[in-house]
Amino acid sequence: MDDIDPRRLIPRTNDLLALPAVREARTRLSERVVNDLVRQFQEQARRGELGPGQVQPALLAAVAERKATTLRPVLNATGVIVHTNLGRAPLSAAAVEALVTASGYVDVELDLADGSRSRRGAGTRAALLAACPAAEDALVVNNGAAALVLATTALAAGREVVVSRGELVEIGAGFRLTDLMESTGARLREVGTTNRTHLHDYAGALGPDTGCVLKVHPSNFRVDGFTSAVSLQELSPLAAANGIPLVADLGSGLLAPDPYLPQEPDVATALASGADVVIASGDKLLGGPQAGLLLGRKEVITRLARHPLARAVRADKLALAALEATVAGEPPPVVQALHADAGQLRRRTERLAQELGVPVVAHDGRVGGGGAPGFPLPGWALRLPEGLARLLRTGDPAVLPRVHDGSCLIDLRCVPPTDDDRILDAVRQALASLEVAGAGRAG
Ligand SMILES: *Cc1c(COP(=O)(O)O)cnc(C)c1O
User: What top-level branch of life does the organism fall under (predicted)?
Assistant: First the structure.
């Protein structure tokens, strides 16, 4: 008797597609995604990586898990509040509700009373101006980098942007503000030195070719020692006397001072100090969606809004909705994590430590996202074996701990208290897998 080629036993496409769970998957996934999953397991069986009898169970497991988005929620146990790799700011409940509302047809650019076209994002602009009365006008674009490109293009293309050498920063992953600004056709006119810049350096650089003066908050590093910089207050009379707009890129996006972060600049203070336009991100300390905020003098904001580039960097309706709700709604998670009560953090951490029988150690959280560098937010962490980190990241729910000094640390600052028990379960599961693995190696 000839052996039957096992490949002939691989289930047929039509039979697999007819399985009830696969038919159900086709109501929530595209036909192509489902077909690709079917083909993937059949091919694995053809290559001998799966037995023919394993194709159906593997497919059923895969369709049950497969969602239309491959993004997975992560519990942030790092203590880093604005975590760029985790998408920066988690949104408030109010912002999430606004996102859902905005996901359908909405009056983002329509006056329902008379049926005519209206100013895009008028509600968001009004919310920003109410929260920051020092600003005469506001414009929202895609992100902070886009805001900076728009400002330098509209004010200084073909001309000079005067900026201190101490403020020419790289904002992450190789993106340099210098390259960004030069891409607009503006020329950088660098003044001063890396550690010291004086008012007379600016005064000597201003002339008929100056498009704007730019102050950049070097948010992700600090220069200590023999340093000096020129404040907005000192610069503003000089810029005004020369009729040159003064732009301040703050990065982080506090609208008003926060006593928890005394070193962090804010929009209201920068405007009161004489900046004509202030730039900030929506998804750093403001705690909202990705967005770039431009706030300041009406005449300058209008100039930016009318520039053709404004259309290329305009904010999406989802971001406009979430931003308005972030400003008008309850304090967003970023602010709650920043202001977390130390005693409560300790009690939460100790409860989990007791349940798990692991030690609690002092641990500083961070603002992150290039904000308040080196500024510690005192708190606590569970200390676990380093080998747990990978298991926690790949578990369900996924938990991102901090790996430091040979330990895996769980900081609850950025974990909503209602998720404490999910952390507990995740750590228990990971500890159990670690024991199994350890026993396997020992035996
Ligand atoms: C973060 C940052 C930017 C870029 O803002 P994005 O919203 O990330 O585009 C620009 N300037 C400064 C000073 C920053 O800190």
Answer: Bacteria
